[in-house]
Every structure is written in C-alpha cells, then in structure tokens.
Design brief:
Layout: E1 3-10, E2 14-23, E3 26-36, E4 40-42, E5 45-47, H1 50-68, E6 73-78, E7 83-86, H2 105-114, H3 117-124, H4 133-137, E8 147-150, H5 151-160, E9 165-166, H6 167-170, E10 176-177, E11 182-183, H7 185-191, E12 201-202, E13 207-211, E14 214-217, H8 223-229, E15 238-243, E16 247-253, H9 260-264, E17 268-271, E18 277-283, H10 287-296, H11 300-309, H12 330-340, H13 349-375, E19 381-385, H14 392-402, E20 406-408, H15 413-425, H16 433-437, E21 444-446
Parallel strand pairs: 1-6, 6-14, 9-12, 15-19, 19-20
Antiparallel strand pairs: 1-2, 2-3, 4-5, 7-8, 10-11, 13-14, 15-16, 16-18, 17-18, 20-21
The structure holds 6-deoxy-beta-L-fructofuranose.
Keywords: ATP-binding, Disulfide bond, Kinase, Nucleotide-binding, Rhamnose metabolism, Transferase
Family: Belongs to the FGGY kinase family.
EC number: 2.7.1.5
Length: about 450
C-alpha cells in the first residue's frame, strides 16, 4: 500500500502544497494547491499576511485529502529568519515583519555594540545579513511577548496546538551554537534576551503533533535545508546551488568552518538535516530577475529569449550586494551599479536580463571556489536545484563559469526533501541522506564548454 505525505512549502512569492506518494520504488510528486504570498504594508512596515498563508495551507491540505483520501503525514517549511510574536494568551500580536523591510539597521548597531561581528561569527557561524533574527529582535519591544515562533513553527502551532523550534531554521536566527546545535546561552545573556522566549528546540523528523488525526512531522523547516536533502548527489564531492528567489551556494559539511577567513568571505554555517552543516553564501538569486520583470512589466520567456541573444559578459554587477535586497526600482539600481563601476549600461531589457544572468553565474563561481578554499573539500560536480533548474540559459552559463558539470534538478527539491524526511520519520524509509537522495529523480546535465 502506498503512503501519501503532504509538504507545505512557503516561498517568498507563493506557497504550495505538494503531495508525495511513496510506493513501488518511486516518490511521485503532485502540486495540489498553489497560492500567492503578497506582503502587506502595516504600521509603516512590510509584513507577511500570515492568516492568508494559513488559509492557503489549510485549503491545500483539504485539496490533498480530496485527491488522495487520508494523508500519512504533513510537514511545513518556509523561508528563514522571520517569526511571529505571541502574547501570554497565545495570540499573535501582529503580522510578522518581512525580512526585506529595512528596519533592522538600528538592530545591527545595537547587537554589534554588545557583541562585535568577529565574536558573533565565532559563536554562531552565521554570516552577516542585516535581516538575521538576532538583529530583527533587537528592534522589538518584547515586554509583553510570551513566545517567539519562527514562521513554520507558528503555522505548525496553529495546526497542532504544540509549540517548538525546529533546529535547521533555528540556526538562521544567529543565536544557535553550531558546534552543539543548542542555543548559545552566553549570547542570550549578553543580549539580555530570555532563551525561554523560544519554545524547546526539536530536530527535523520528529512528531510535532497532529492535525485532524493526521501526524504533523518536523522537517528541515528552513526551506534551504529541505532543498539540500533532495540534492541527488551520489558522492561527497558535490556543491549545490539552491536556486529560487535566493541562490544559496555551497557545500554540505560535517563540521562548521568558523575561521576569520570564512567570516570575511561572508560564508554561513547553517544547520542541515542529520546534523550536517550547510556551508554557503547567499547570492541574490532569481529575485533580481523577478524584480526586473515586475519593474518592466515583461514576461520571463521574453526576457530570457532576449538575454540569450544579447552580448555575453557586457556588464557584470555584484549579485551579493545588499543594495539589491529591498523591492522596487531594480532596473534602475542595476543600471546605476554598472555605471558606477565604469561598465556599459544595459540598453534594453535583453541586455539587462543578460547582465543579471552573467552576474549570477559569476557569483556562483566565486562562491564555489571560496567554499572549496575555505573548507578544503574538493568538488567534482554542481547540483542546481529549485525553480532555477528550469532556466536553461542560467544552467549553461553556470556550467561554463564554474568549469564543472551542472546537474540541474529537481525543480521541486524543497518539497521532495520535506517529503523524504517525513517518510523516514514515519518509519517508511531508513538510512542516512544518501539513501533518501536515491529516491530523487529529474536531473538534466549541462557540461561546461
Ligand atoms: C530562501 C531563504 C534563504 C534565507 C532567506 C531569508 O528562501 O530561506 O535561505 O537566507 O530565505
């Protein structure tokens, strides 16, 4: 008898519920519901419309049950770092603030005044990003707050009534000790934060509670952690690019790299499933293209076709530059970056899109060569997973820039990783990541030219 699990995967622009039917040697994925995730402006801040996401999630679970009958498990993942604040009665105080809201500058200053950047990195291994939870929390008034719940943990609480903090996502707060996987008590004390504000830590792959009689499991609730589970690697010598709104570029390691060199190179040590370390750099990713599209009102197909015909390498921008973080005016910001660095300005949408894609491919190359240098781990191939695996031009440019084979796919790696961890938690699969990865299908290889 086949078993069916439902993965709830919330992305920055849409959420989806994907079912995975496990039977006869295959994991069959089906997207049963997709809903928009449109941030709202409230109280002068950009926020997530979390009730709408919750409704999308429950509608999706209903659609999954309609299609498959009963479900054998549910798991939730989302983007990292953001959280909801609950009062003593368990009610959400306000919609969670979006990590792209620029409010955190003051928080960064406050935290760094107490714990300088080098010590913060040596303690947590998390790269500096202005939106890390630790900086967001430093801007909050916490006196009436009883609980801080990261986004997937908040939705899981609404489904099950049980509170917890899943470890892969907890690592992105910038408050976890990467050596032990426990909160850094010293850091909480120095920052005057009560560690009890976060419900108890729990690993991915344990029972979180139940929803309408169906088990809810923790998974790699940080979407990138789930995506890395479904990288169909067959040896240790691989790098990954988890390519969606962000591109997360790096390696899977057994131990964190906490050197000053790694900090200077802005590499992070996020926690992976099975206690692995995701040693990676954040590259802006398809966000650049999505914003150009929104800005110019043009379709993706048109932009990519024109980019394919445009002159290669005409102008390159730094695809890790925080100037590209906030929404809006992306075409103007990219053009300004070209001008300021003495390069030709893109003259049409095709040149603009080409500049984005060339810049991404070069940023991937730089991140991978830094990752190899900093960790000492050699690589023989790059796995590009997530929505970007559909972008043939980007895959080809990445293979050329890195001088390595790029295995592109699966596009739905996050959902697949979420489902595989549930299936193992339910006792239907066993073994480590290599065994889980052997269930993943859907790869196309690009060789460098
Ligand atoms: C990708 C992602 C990434 C984080 C960012 C906030 O969705 O989780 O790993 O750095 O969102």
């Amino acid at each position: 008898m086949a078993a069916v699990f439902a993965a709830v995967d919330l992305g920055a622009s849409s959420g989806r519920v994907v079912t995975g039917r496990l039977g006869a040697g295959t994991l069959e994925l089906a997207e049963v519901h997709r809903f928009a995730n449109e941030p709202v402006s409230e109280g002068g801040l950009l926020r997530w419309d979390i009730r709408k996401l919750h409704k999308g999630l429950t509608d999706g679970l209903r659609a999954a049950a309609d299609r498959h009958g009963t479900l054998d498990g549910i798991g939730i993942d989302s983007w990292a770092v953001d959280y909801g604040l609950l009062d003593a009665s368990g009610s959400l105080i306000a919609n969670p603030v979006h990590y792209r809201d620029p409010r955190t500058a003051a928080g960064v200053e406050r935290v760094h005044a107490v714990v300088p950047p080098a010590r913060l990195y040596a303690t947590t291994g998390i790269q500096f990003q202005p939106f890390n939870t630790v900086f967001q929390l430093a801007t909050e008034e916490l006196s009436s707050v009883a609980d801080i719940l990261l986004i997937p943990d908040l939705l899981s609480y609404w489904l099950t009534g049980e509170k917890g903090t899943e470890r892969t996502n907890a690592s992105t707060t910038g408050l976890l000790d990467p050596r032990t996987g426990e909160w850094s008590a010293g850091l909480f004390a120095e920052l005057g934060l009560a560690a009890e504000l976060f419900p108890p830590l729990r690993d991915p792959g344990v029972l979180a509670g139940s929803y309408e009689g169906c088990p809810v499991y923790t998974v790699g609730s940080h979407d990138t952690a789930s995506a890395v589970v479904a990288v169909p690697a067959t040896s240790d010598r691989f790098a990954y690019i988890s390519c969606g709104t962000w591109s997360l570029v790096g390696l899977e390691l057994d131990e964190p790299v906490l050197t000053e060199e790694a900090r200077q190179a802005n590499f992070t040590n996020e926690r992976g499933v099975d206690g692995k370390v995701r040693f990676l750099r954040n590259v802006m990713g398809l966000w650049l293209l999505q914003e150009v599209q929104r800005d110019l009102g043009l379709g993706l197909g048109y932009l990519l076709d024109s980019a394919a015909r445009a002159t290669p390498g005409r102008s390159i921008v730094d695809a890790t530059d925080p100037r590209f973080l906030p929404p809006g005016d992306m075409a103007a910001r990219i053009t300004a970056a070209c001008r300021e660095s003495g390069q030709p300005e893109p003259r049409d949408p095709g040149e603009l899109a080409r500049c984005v894609l060339d810049s991404l491919a070069l940023a991937y190359r730089d991140a991978l060569s830094d990752a190899v240098r900093l960790s000492g781990r050699p690589i023989e191939a790059v796995h590009l997973v997530g929505g970007g695996a559909h972008n043939e031009l980007l895959c080809r440019l990445t293979a050329d820039a890195c001088g390595l084979p790029v295995h592109a796919g699966p596009a739905e790696a996050t959902a697949a990783g979420n489902l595989l961890v549930q299936a193992r938690a339910a006792g239907l699969l066993d073994g480590g990541l290599r065994e889980l990865r052997s269930w993943v299908r859907g790869v196309r290889t690009y060789l460098p030219e």
